[in-house]
Write a structure and sequence with these properties.
The complex is a heterodimer. By secondary structure, chain A is mostly helical. Chain A is built from 15 helices and no strands. Chain A has helices at about 15-40, 45-75, 85-90, 95-110, 125-130, 130-135, 140-175, 180-205, 220-245, 255-285, 285-300, 300-320, 330-365, 385-410, 420-425. In chain A, helix 1 runs antiparallel to helix 14. Chain A is globular and about 70 Å long. Chain B folds into two domains: about 5-40 and about 140-165, 2-Layer Sandwich (Alpha-Beta Plaits); about 55-120, no CATH class. Chain B is about 50% helix and about 15% strand. Chain B has five helices and four strands, in the order βαβαααβαβ. A four-stranded antiparallel beta sheet of chain B has the order 2-3-1-4. Chain B is elongated. The chains are: A mainly alpha, B alpha+beta. Chains A and B meet through helix 10 of A and helix 1 and helix 4 of B.
Chain lengths: ~425, ~170
């Protein structure tokens, strides 16, 4: 082949004080919002717990899917990502704080901190009398919730550490035997089946079990696709930011184009899963299954239909053309909308079930005089309020802070990766 | 159809990278290339030849849209006006049930429409015999052809020699 050797620019990201400051301010906004939420909340602090769960699972999922996609690329011999694969390695480093966050959250469920009524199955009285909850109690119980969270996110984190350390060691000690690469080619495929099954289980217990009487076999895929699309959108935004700061000048519109294709394709994949879940339940019309959608269509219509508008119609028509996947303006616009859209998607998965459980348990205990009636629109439940947005900003700050500090600790480009030249020559 | 024949002089190359270099050289020497043939799409060739972006995908979008409308309006008419039947207690106009068929017809119209358009534009079709300059360009050879009336034959011969053409031939098509 006549292809020429391209010299890779090896540079380090500098995590400037200014950026640290901005992210710290964002985290401050998040802490303030969470604290404020606690005090304006109902007796069970449902808004506080759901906001925490909503944002923690959302950013955990982005870190997880970054690791997942990195492993997919390694397994599939996909070389084009090599130039910027450090971004995903750094994103996956968020799994350590995620483990702390989610374990902390699971402990709060375990010890019923603040007498929360988040999960119906966590209420011992209900499980005794309720046949459905009783039947699910071997999976939906406090012990497994805590244990499963620690084990699953813990294993994710260990894989993230292993894969990153192999990649970093390759920078220092890699040679033409490509031992590190061969090792990565064993670790990455080992992660994939575990990731596939465990992510489904963790989505069931964290999110789907908020509607404890309901279940859907499509749910894990559907919310997993949400995570994945958000991760691709995050990657695009971070790449654009770093390019504007003078890093990653060798990442060309060809790489961006392919990321844009993933954004486009997986938005459609998400829609496909969303619709498959919806249509089967609509068609079968079994009461215990339709409850999930009836609640959302009747009481959350703006979010329910807006979800499809932002996450399907918009990326479908904007990203359909070739040039909109290559131009920074259109791609950044869609990426921001998609992250926000899937954040709303998670909002819609989490809030209605939790509010419903609160009404059921609260009504039973009779000590929640200030509870609003079910059909009254509540800020923070039927639509996100400032406190939700503030919490989201805080979590973005936390995620980016962990991400940028991990990114700054290693060169931005793996110089001894055997696929580096392929990535430098990438041409769509 | 009586098409006027054109006298071509053409060179065959072994590799797409050599072909690309040759096309670059031809551009630099202002030799007007008549046609380039390759057994598979060569990356980066279109911009070098100054070819315009194909409009086939725009046609594909239009065909797809026609498929969407055909399926959706067709089912709407059939199930609400022409022959209303109640399925499983659902309303006559059951949009979610229409979506899979609408999707399928969109894809079908787009695919068949684009294939037919492509065939018509290229003058291809079942039973149409296409003459080639050399049969090997459908296998493993890359070809640059010049229209003899448009170029200086000596310059072209020198060009083929310099750019590493394996073989130089002439043919009328």
């Amino acid at each position: 082949m006549g292809a020429t050797h391209i010299q890779a620019r090896i540079e380090n990201f500098e995590f400037t004080g200014k950026l640290k400051m901005s992210l710290a301010i964002m985290m401050g906004i998040g802490i303030l919002s969470l604290g404020w939420t606690w005090f304006v909340d109902d007796a069970s602090h449902t808004r506080f717990w759901t906001n925490l769960l909503h944002n923690a699972t959302f950013v955990t999922g982005i870190a997880f899917t970054a690791l997942f996609f990195l492993c997919v690329c390694i397994t599939a011999w996909a070389g084009w990502v090599t130039l910027f694969k450090r971004l995903w390695e750094a994103m996956s480093m968020f799994l350590l704080p995620a483990l702390v966050l989610m374990t902390g959250f699971a402990l709060c469920i375990y010890f019923n901190v603040g007498h929360n009524t988040l999960y119906h199955w966590a209420d011992a009285g209900s499980v005794e009398t309720d046949t459905i909850l009783n039947g699910k109690s071997s999976f939906l119980n406090k012990n497994w919730y805590l244990f499963g969270t620690i084990i699953i996110v813990g294993v994710w984190m260990l894989f993230a550490k292993k894969i990153r350390s192999l990649s970093l060691d390759e920078d220092a000690n890699g040679d033409s035997d490509f031992e590190h690469h061969h090792s990565l080619r064993r670790w990455a495929p080992a992660f994939l089946p575990f990731a596939g099954f465990s992510s489904a289980a963790i989505i069931w217990q964290w999110i789907m079990s908020l509607d404890a009487h309901w279940y859907s076999t499509m749910f894990a895929w559907y919310s997993g696709a949400s995570w994945f699309v958000s991760m691709i959108a995050t990657t695009i935004l971070i790449l654009m930011y770093l390019k504007s700061k003078g890093y990653y000048q060798q990442v060309s519109s060809e790489h961006i184009h392919d990321l844009g294709k993933f954004l486009f394709a997986f938005s459609i994949f998400w829609t496909y899963l969303w619709f498959s879940q919806f249509m089967l339940i609509w068609y079968a019309n079994i009461g215990e299954e339709t409850g999930y959608f009836k609640l959302r269509m009747d009481e959350y219509p703006i979010l329910f239909w807006g979800n499809l508008l932002i996450n399907f119609i918009l990326p479908f028509f904007v990203l359909m053309r070739n040039d909109t996947k290559r131009k920074a303006g259109s791609l950044i616009f869609v990426a921001i909308m998609i992250i926000f859209g899937h954040w709303l998607d998670f909002f819609l998965m989490i809030k209605p079930g939790a509010l419903h459980t609160f009404h059921e348990l609260g009504a039973g205990h009779g000590d929640h005089g200030a509870v609003a009636h079910a059909h009254e629109a509540l800020t923070g439940f039927h639509l996100p309020g400032f406190l939700e947005i503030g919490t989201f900003i805080g979590f973005i700050g936390l995620f980016l802070f962990v991400f940028f500090s991990a990114l700054s600790r290693a060169p931005l480009t793996p110089k001894n990766d055997p696929y580096l030249q392929e990535s430098l020559h990438h041409h769509v | 159809m009586a098409v006027k024949t054109v006298d071509y002089i053409y060179g065959l190359y072994n590799d797409e990278e050599i072909l690309l270099d040759a096309v670059r050289t031809a551009n630099a020497e202002h030799l007007e290339i008549g046609e380039v043939y390759s057994p598979f799409p060569v990356h980066g060739l279109d911009p070098l030849l100054g070819l315009e972006e194909s409009r086939l995908h725009i046609a594909g979008f239009v065909y797809g849209g026609l498929g969407t409308l055909t399926a959706f309006l067709g089912m709407t008419w059939i199930f609400t006006k022409d022959w209303p039947i109640i399925f499983g207690g659902k309303p006559y106009w059951s949009v979610p049930a229409f979506i899979p068929i609408t999707f399928e017809l969109t894809v079908l119209f787009a695919a068949i429409g684009m294939v037919v358009s492509f065939y018509i534009v290229c003058g291809l079709g079942p039973g149409v015999k296409e003459k080639t300059l050399d049969d090997r360009i459908t296998d493993d050879k890359f070809c640059i052809a010049f229209n003899k009336s448009e170029v200086n034959i000596d310059a072209v011969n020198a060009f083929f020699k310099n750019t590493g053409a394996e073989e130089v031939n002439s043919k009328s098509l």
